[in-house]
Predict the structure.
Amino acid sequence: MIINLRVDHKIADIETMENVSKDLKKLFIKFKEEFNVQEYIEIDTCNRKEYYIYTATYGNENELLKAEKENTNDNILIHYDDTAIVHLFRMTSGLESMIIGEDQILGQIKNAKNRSIKEEHCGKVLDTLFTKAIHVGQVVRSKTKINRGSVSIGSAAVDLAEEHIGNLNDKHVLVIGAGKMGTLVAKALAEKDLKAIFVANRTYYRAVRLANELNGKAILLDELGQCLPSADVIISATGAPHSILNKERIGNYIDTSNSSSIIMIDIANPRDIDENVKELGVKLFNIDDLRGIADENKKMRENEVKEAEMIIKTEFKLLKNSFKLMEVEELLGNIRLSMEDIRIKEAQKASSKLADVEGSAKIIDNMTKSIVNKIFHDISLNIKKAAEEEDYVTIESLKFIFKEE
């Protein structure tokens, strides 16, 4: 059984997601213990927190429904098998993102899978599922225009700034964070005719690298006081586990008589900027405020979404067929081993009786191999056909006939 546990931007705002993540972790641990989970992949982005779990210990719908009823947090979704698989395909295709068609989610899911492999809790089933999901995301992007001219969370943040401050030409902009999200912001800003841009990061060389691409200046987080007084727009996107800016830290650098003209946009999760900065008069926005831009983007891509959904439907059927065949691979392997064991023993008996005949051992070995191959060929085809047609009665009968436990 494949189980998906999640909280995302569709059912929760940024504050709720921050709070619910702890309950989600507890629920994951509970499932991990109850279902004896050996395979799992964790996905953590600014807009979602998800776990994909595979358990060979068969669960059923009633157990999951019971778990949902016991789950006191209404912001946590529990899906399994087909529904969980389709959600993952939609996610890699960019259909579940706040900004429809964005490409970053594909890389984030690749990284989540690779991390799980490295930590040795991604087995054959989830490896197959996620490899297919990544392939689906790539196919959707190559066969549709879902990401053509696509905006990212980073460029949406820049658009939001322009909505509230006007044209960014001749403005001073401070980007906090030189990771992937900060880089997306920087790329969007590169198209603007800025007066000055500062990049602040905990690791200085990363700030330098990004600042050089923008003809800007790099500073350390501890040196924010150098550019806060002149900043018109501050966009923060770090991976810090707690806020890095608050009223107390920036109060001495902000001109409160003119603070209403300062825009601060926080696109981090957990959030980088404490709500109390509003008391200084600055305009503070976060991921939730990007929803308007996201809705406009969604309307623009309605036709592409329909095409993407058709691709997902086709690829889903192919994956389901692969899973059906995976279920009987072990049975086929064991039947083959059983036949091979019998073949070797009988070939040895025959060889001993024909010891005086030159080349008899090789002739018998080749002949018995040929017999087993021909017998196994039809058995293999019929077992695979039974799996594809979900004929579990036949499969269980075969397990009994060939003494499969």
Notes: The two ends are 20 Å apart (CA to CA). The mean pLDDT is 86. Residues 302-353 form the longest helix (52 residues). The chain is about 55% helix and 15% strand.
